[in-house]
Each structure stands twice: as structure tokens, then as C-alpha cells.
Amino acid sequence: MTKKDEVLRLLEKCSQGERREIFTHLRSEFSIHRLEADLNTTAEVILEAVFRSPDLTQRGVKGIIAEAVFLVKVLQKLPGWTVVDFVPGNSYDFLVEDTRGSLSIQVKMQRRLKGKPYIRREKFVVETQRTRSGRDAAGGATRPYRFGDFDILAVSMHASTGDWTRFMYTVGSWLLPRPHDADLIAVLQPVAMVSNDDWTDDLEECIYWCRSRVKRTIEPF
Fold this sequence. Notes:
CATH class of the largest domain: Alpha Beta
């Protein structure tokens, strides 16, 4: 039996309190993430800061988590596709390409209302606009998305499933327009609870829809 095997065997016999003491001892030697060195603090302090932060900050953190999970669990496992290096400032979160060309993907979180998944007329809801507001050179608002800003919308369904790997997808050009400006994407979009002709939980299927160039609009609320 190796020393490691012996230690693991002894750990199994330790109480929860003793195991926590051992964990604390090891944490003084090993970091969890390189961000600890960058910020010169511990992961525990970083997590406590997030926990104590206002709702808006926590929503931002959840959005970042959704994007990271989408990259690692979905895009990096998508056969035949390569993720192009991220360029800040784009109107999409990811650009992927295969031998036929590239597609842009915007990732959003399923909307919550009072801490629970927002359901409107038997549909979930996603908010499709930028977090930060501003004005362009012509004085127009920069927070809204325009049709053509991204090819596919990926919605993290963590709010209703508790699973960071669950997403629903639709084609960007299929989204509902704003009532008074057909060039802009409406802020609140209905998300089907299960896959249908408008939404799918399979990214490859959504890519097929996108490249088929079928023109349609998702069913409204």
C-alpha cells in the first residue's frame, strides 16, 4: 500500500470535523484557482465577496458562469467546430467556425422574478439587451440588440433546472421585434419550456435551422 492509499484509508475513518481540519491545513499550501494569486487573496474571500454583493452583481456573476459553462461543456465538445478567440466589445459572446464558415452566439440567462423563474403565459422569459446602456455617435441607444448582431441565442436554463449545462437555443433572426422599431430585438422574449419548432435544447439542431435560412418568428407570449 502506498502512502497515498494509507492517507486515504485514514481519511475515511476521520470525523467530518477532523476532515475539515485537514482540508484547512492543505488549503494553506494549495490554491484552488490562479485568480487567488492575481487578486492576492483566497477563494473563500472571493466567494464571500460575491455572496455579500447586491443582486445586480450576483446576476452578473451568474451570467459569467453561464458563459464559462457554455464554452467548456457545449462549444468545446461540439464536433467539427472551433471557437475563435474572443474579441471584447462584440455584440455576441462566442464566434465558432467550421469548414463552411462562422456563426456568432449570444448567451443569456433565463429571467427570474422575485427569485423564481419568470413564467409568462406558460413560457419562460429571457431578457435580450445589453447590461450597460449608452449612446452611439448618432444619439441612438446602444443597449438594444439589432437583428444581425448575433446568429444564435443560447439561454441558460439554470434558473428553472438548477443545471448549468442546460440551454435552449433559437435563431437570432427569429426573435420578436420591438413594436415600434422592427430593426431592434424586443427586450423580453418567450422561451419554450420544451423543444418545439421555435426552440431546441440541441445546439447542432439550431445551427441547422440557422443555416437553412428559414424565415419565421417565434411564437409570442
